[in-house]
Amino acid sequence: MIRIANAPVSYGAFEQTVGVLPNVPEAELVLDAIAAAGYEGTELGPYGYFGTDRALHAALERHGLELAGAFVELDFGGAELAELAPLEATLDVLQPYGALPILSDTGPRDGPVDLDGVARAADLARRRGLEPVFHHHMGTRVQTPAEIERLLDGTDVALLLDTGHLVAGGGDPVQALHAWAERVRHVHVKDVSQRIIRDASDWDEAWRRGAFCELGTGDVDLAAFFTALDGYDGWLVVEQDWFPQHGEDPQEHVAAQRRNRAWLRKHAGI
Fold first, then answer.
1. Are 257 and 11 in contact (CB under 8 A)?
2. Is the pLDDT of residue 79 over 70?
3. pLDDT, tens only, 95-151
4. Which domains does the chain have, with CATH numbers?
5. What is the DSSP letter of 99?
6. Integer Cα distance of 42 and 32 in angstroms
7. Is the CB of residue 201 less than 8 Å from the CB of residue 211?
8. For residues 156 and 158, what is the distance between their CA atoms, to the nearest angstrom?
9. Which of 58, 142, 253, 125 is closest to 162 using CA atoms?
10. In sequence order, what are the beta bridge partners of 72?
């Protein structure tokens, strides 16, 4: 059964903005918006943004939402994985919910990902009773289809398949499902504008300029993807990364997430 969630990054709240930019919406507004749009769950967002322990439990319960997972960036660039404390802290939050730890490399793209480091991080999560997934991501050492293949061949970690990041990285989500279906345990559904990527000087500029667009308005063949997704059992998380710009109104992005939820009902029947 597919369950639909959203994430704070769709509303401009993530590690690079919370506590940094002035127009990032408060956590309560984001939770209200996610629930009002009809999503069943949310990912955690930046550590502490929704609270921890009892405060987090109360916030989720108040809005009738479940916790789907949490994104954890680690430096998988060398033979020694330098710092696991962020993962430890996130596992403490996730454990009562049985939610997914989402591992990702921090980048930069200066060589291959350290597979032993990925295995060590996965083992830590498993010792805490949680099965992790790995998020391929633009700007990191696991960006292209070949780099994803290397990760899957060299580890036993499950995959978070992200439609937008995959297309931006030169891949095809439908081919990815056919090739990696047995390893896909979590899905981020995004649309992406190749025009914005082409017109930008680099990925960071494209991302900040809104390369991830509303569902059905970009270059991902979402109709074919949802046909190929038949039989998937797990969370499907809508993400439309927004980097707040000066003067932008968060309510515009609240409305966009309502439209994304409506798009899924109309075009994917979920």
1. yes
2. no
3. 999 999 999 999 899 999 999 999 999 999 999 999 999 999 999 999 999 999 999
4. 10-268 (3.20.20.150)
5. P
6. 11
7. no
8. 7
9. 142
10. 103
Q: Which amino acid is at 240?
A: Q
Note if the pTM is more than 0.90: yes
Are the beta carbons of 12 and 243 closer than 8 angstroms? yes
User: Per-residue DSSP letters for 101-135?
Assistant: EEEEE----SS---HHHHHHHHHHHHHTT---EEE
Task: Indicate the burial class of 202 (C-beta count within 10 angstroms; 0-12, 13-18, 19 or more).
Answer: exposed
Lookup: tokens for 163: 């439609």
Residue 138: Cβ within 10 Å count: 23
d(CA 261, CA 259): 5
- Rounded CA-CA distance 45/208 in Å is 18
| Cα dihedral sign, 144-191-158-14 | positive
Q: 153: which 2 tokens?
A: 């061949």
Q: N- to C-terminal Cα distance for the chain?
A: 10
DSSP state of 167: H
**Cβ-contact 97, 129 below 8 angstroms:** no
Question: Which residue bears the tokens 């390369």?
Answer: 211
